[in-house]
Request: fold
Amino acid sequence: MSTPENTSGTRGGTRLSVLKTYKLYIGGKFPRSESGRVYEVTDTEGQWLANAPLGSRKDARDAVVAARKAFPGWSGATAYNRGQILYRIAEMLEGRREQFAAEVAAAEGLPQDRARALADAAVDRWVWYAGWSDKIAQVLGGANPVAGPFFNLSTPEPTGVVAVLAPQRCSLLGLVSVLAPVIVTGNTAVLVTSRTAPLPALSLAEVLATSDLPGGVVNVLSGDTAQLARPLAAHQDVNAVDLAGAGPELAAELEASAAENLKRVLRPGSGDWSATPGLERMSAFLETKTVWHPVGA
Reply:
């Protein structure tokens, strides 16, 4: 006679967890890594949480192609429309705040109340940047005083494709603090997640895929930070690099590589992601265009 099983289909009431295997996010789709490899993501106590894809140089190149393809449409959208889309992402983050709080708690070894506070701060930070979408041009642009029968106007325009190295710590608030200012100003992004705490970024990719954000505007790669960052810093179709997640030695190496095609480079800061953000991260990836126009009689 067979042994009776419980309602969950396991013997003796013991259930094995189904650990999730995440995928990359490139061009609005979820491909497996070109290498086919994954690595174990653990919490601060060494407990196995999930499998993350181990991105390769080929994945990095594919992400740049997707970001470049999405750039004309995203940069050409109205600032108001970009703000609407970012606000929609914030709404979806709010609906999944418990999931993100749990991932932050596991990744950073924090108590649940502190993790919830960081998740709330990340949502608020996203909303803050969304509100700047149709205001940043008024602050950074303007009419310039000139002598003669003409006038000129200076307006900020997006730089292009930005490679973003997410902070290795502060896995959600730091992530939002580097990604949101890049895309709200009309740039497209190739995001390299934290090596040890990639789950908030990989979960954010699932949010982006079900929002109104066009595919390719944000592309998410996980794996070895240096292995992914080197081809991005040297890539001739990447216009700027944010080195927030690079250590001093890697940052110096990447900055030298970025000089090959005069990329804009934002060096690592203090790492205090709880501080009120200013305009630095938005202005870092904007170019100023000045237009001269004659005045009619």
